[in-house]
Specification:
Blueprint (H helix, E strand, L loop, with lengths): L31 E4 L1 H7 L7 H14 L3 E5 L5 H12 L8 E7 L2 H10 L5 E9 L2 H8 L3 H19 L6 E9 L6 H15 L7 E7 L6 H14 L6 E7 L6 H10 L4 E4 L13 H10 L11 H12 L20 H13 L34 H12 L5 H18 L5 H12 L6 E11 L2 E10 L2 E9 L2 H13 L3 E11 L6 E10 L2 E9 L2 H20 L1
Parallel strand pairs: 1-2, 1-8, 2-3, 3-4, 4-5, 5-6, 6-7, 7-8
Antiparallel strand pairs: 9-10, 10-11, 12-13, 13-14
């Protein structure tokens, strides 16, 4: 058998679901969020967090609005034990936040866990044991009955130790570890055994957490498993159904979302997806998915840069620039057609309407980003991107015909550089190419009069250091100026298109004019700036004439 051979593997069995309901449902509210950054996320680090890092991440989780936070495995780790004690002794737990601790279904570890929690007001004790076929047969060498006995005994120990601390408001959570690789009828059976011991009620519900410990199926199969469990477990109103998905197949967020549709109430995950192997379910991504669909995520994630910074410094894991929603490049468009569509949509987007901008699923401003990073220009960019950065950074609203010509020049420059080009360079290319109103022809003043329905112009023109005066007439200053030029030069010149606009306001306002001329059958564009609108238009004509003269020379 060759090394890379798909015949080595077989597909996981699917759950028989004759009348599944989850495909017909829509998520309308956020789940109960449970952060496992300080436990599952921490245990997966090459260098686990030190005390200072744990405290910093804890403060961030509280600030973001998490009400359920798994803080460690205190019976298996002294740093985790000490951190739990710090939280309690230093009164760091807000009244509305419930801390959660993890423990295996082993008596000595359960006793140690309760010792770590002495003095706490309320807490969740999360116990688990492995239930999958491969774990039963190859790790523990037990049948179903043997594994169920472990779970039942663990529940008895958890309940017994809790009774020693009647002043604490206890919540309990049970996970059949490797749920997704467990036969569904057995997953229900073992959880029923745990419920028989814990005796949950609608007022004191048991959290049953269904982990995709290793993601091994498509999200729809996981949804079927969750719906099967939700519809076959007894006393459904006495449990909080939770899921804990991993990202081995890259579908942890999708699996958690479909699980919500399938009946889950609660989702465990980490900020930005840190966790074992390929990571845990990314709560930031899922919360932003809800937000983009008009659902309140019930977490304060409007400043993702703070999340990125704290998580990065606590885990020593850098964020990928294309991480969903919050990566450095996710609101950046290099494609020319994308840039053009974004620019046009942003111009039409009204503040009182629902967001409708092509290629931008949300307004980046909502999460502290701005449009500085939305459009960047490289060799794949087009006129839309070039126009956008000039308008954004320099207030220039180029007409389409000038956008097309400038984009070609910018593309040549980016191809030579083999990389991105900044707006200052684009602006320099624009001015060098189109704003050429000083050589060989320059304007040195003009006089405009109106007589007998015509505009009469006298314009002083400097050509190669020599001044002369043009005399022309027409409908408007531009027409009169071109008439005077044609009389002097003998060229055939007409205006194909003309645009002008102001840059800035008040005394600092400046006019910019763009003109496209037909000069002896050839179209030539020019642009110019001036505080006087008429001067800007005449200089724009001279820019086009200069380009034509230089090209002919």
């Amino acid at each position: 058998m060759k090394a890379f051979d798909h015949n080595k593997y077989k597909a996981n069995p699917v759950t028989a679901m004759g009348n599944r309901q989850w495909p017909n449902r829509t998520i309308t509210r956020a789940p109960i969020w449970a952060s496992v950054d300080l436990r599952d996320g921490n245990q997966a680090l090459l260098e686990p967090m030190n005390v200072a890092q744990k405290r910093r991440l804890w403060a961030l989780l509280v600030k973001l609005g998490f009400k359920e936070i798994e803080v460690g495995f205190p019976s298996a780790s002294k740093p985790d034990y000490d951190f739990v004690r710090w939280l309690i002794e230093e009164k760091q737990i807000p009244d509305d936040v419930n801390v959660q601790v993890l423990v295996q279904a082993r008596e000595d570890l359960i006793v140690r866990t309760y010792e770590a929690l002495k003095g706490i007001k309320r807490a969740t004790v999360h116990f688990y044991n492995s239930t999958s076929t491969v774990q039963r047969e190859r790790v523990f060498g037990m049948d179903r009955e043997g594994i169920t006995a472990i779970a039942r005994k663990g529940a008895e120990w958890v309940k017994r130790e809790a009774e020693k601390y009647p002043e604490v408001e206890w919540t309990f959570e049970y996970s059949p570890e490797s749920f997704t690789n467990t036969e569904m009828d057995y997953a229900v059976e073992i959880c029923e055994a745990v419920m028989d011991v814990m005796q949950p009620t609608p007022k004191n519900r048991l959290i049953i957490n269904l982990p995709s410990t290793v993601e091994s199926t498509t999200p729809n199969v996981f949804a079927d498993q969750v719906e099967y469990f939700a519809t076959h477990i007894s006393r459904r109103d006495a449990i909080i159904l939770s899921v804990h998905t991993h990202n081995d197949r890259g579908c942890a967020v999708a699996a958690a979302e479909l699980a919500i549709l399938a009946g889950a109430d609660r989702v465990e995950g980490t900020l930005l997806g840190n966790g074992e192997r390929t990571g845990n379910m990314d709560i930031v991504t899922m919360a932003m998915n809800l937000y983009s669909q008009g659902v309140d995520p019930e977490l304060d994630i409007g400043n993702p840069d703070e999340i990125i910074q704290v998580v990065g410094e606590c885990t020593s894991i850098a964020l990928h620039p294309r991480h969903p929603w919050v990566g450095e490049l996710v609101y950046t468009a290099f494609s020319g057609s994308h840039q053009d569509a974004i620019r046009k949509c942003l111009q039409k987007q009204q503040p009182d309407e629902h967001w409708q901008v092509a290629y931008l699923p949300i307004d980046p401003k909502d999460i502290g980003r701005d449009y500085q990073a939305v459009i960047r220009v490289n060799s794949q960019s087009g006129k839309g991107g070039v126009a956008f950065v000039l308008e954004r950074d320099y207030g220039l609203s180029l007409p389409r015909w000038m956008q097309v010509e400038l984009a070609q020049l910018v593309q040549k420059e980016t191809e030579q550089r083999s990389g991105e080009i900044d707006s200052a360079t684009i602006h320099a290319i624009f001015t060098q190419r189109f704003v050429t109103d000083k050589s060989p022809l320059a304007l040195n003043g003009y006089k405009l009069e109106r007589a007998e329905g015509q505009d009469l112009i006298q314009a002083k023109i400097v050509e190669n250091g020599n001044e002369s005066t043009l005399h022309g007439s027409g409908e408007g200053a531009l027409s009169a100026f071109i008439d005077g030029w044609m009389t002097r030069s003998g060229q055939q010149v007409s205006v194909v298109d003309y645009n002008e606009h102001a840059i800035g306001t008040g005394t600092n306002a400046e006019a910019v004019a763009y003109v496209q001329l037909n000069i002896n059958g050839q179209r030539v564009s020019g642009a110019a700036f001036d505080h006087d609108t008429v001067s800007a238009s005449l200089k724009a004509v001279l820019s086009a004439l200069n380009r034509s003269l230089v090209s002919a020379g």
